[in-house]
Structures are given as C-alpha cells and as structure tokens.
Amino acid sequence: MRVLGLDLGSRTLGVSVSDALGMIAQPVTTIRFEEDDYDSAFEQVQTYIKEYQIKTVVLGLPKHMNGDVGIRGDISIMFKERLETLGVAVVLWDERLTTVAAQRILIAADVSRKKRKKVIDQMAAVQILQGY
Known about the structure:
Shape: globular
Number of domains: 1
Order of helices and strands: EEEHEHEHH
CATH class: Alpha Beta
Largest sheet: 5 strands, mixed
Oligomer: single chain
C-alpha cells in the first residue's frame, strides 16, 4: 500500500509517494498556491490521494528546535484534521531539518540552484516519508 508524504509551506506543498511496498519514497510534485490559501492546497492534494489510492498520509510537523510547536505547526495540525475528513489516516512527522537534508542531497548531486528551488519541497517531502 502506498503512503503519501507532504511538506506543507505557506505557498507550496511538496508531495512524495512511496512504492507499493512502502519502502522507497519518490518525489511527485510541488503544489503551488496563493500564500496561506490552504483550501486550494487541500483541493489539489486530493487528486494524488485518489490517484495513488492512499490510505495513509505522513504530514510534516514543523517544530522549533526546542521542540515547541508554533504557528506553522498549528497550521499543519489543522491541515491534518482536514485530510482526515477524506477517510485517510494522517501521521504527523517531525520535519526539523528535512529541508536542510534535502538541500544537501541536491547539492551533492550537483543540481543547479535554479533547479534546486523547483524541487526542494518535493525532496523535503521525500525526506519526511523516508524518515517515517
């Protein structure tokens, strides 16, 4: 069964999906939306939940380095609750440093800065899903 990984930002939503065995995560897309327009992000992510017949979603939970959940974390929690209305299980996953790890992987692969900017959210979603 495939699992969907999500990295929610204020204007982008990185999407990744596992293979059928749930062992390997791969990037899918970066959903772009107007700043803080989570309704649009929700509508767009439903397509991937249906397409991949997703039963479990792993959603990044941004935390401060001291472990506190701030405003961004609260937004992720609200997004989780909204996703659950679709009948999927949603797991919140600590996403601290996932973007940093994704950035390092892309730099090591000699991906240009311009191309990194286009795929960084997808790669962060991959890191979240792989961590799970």
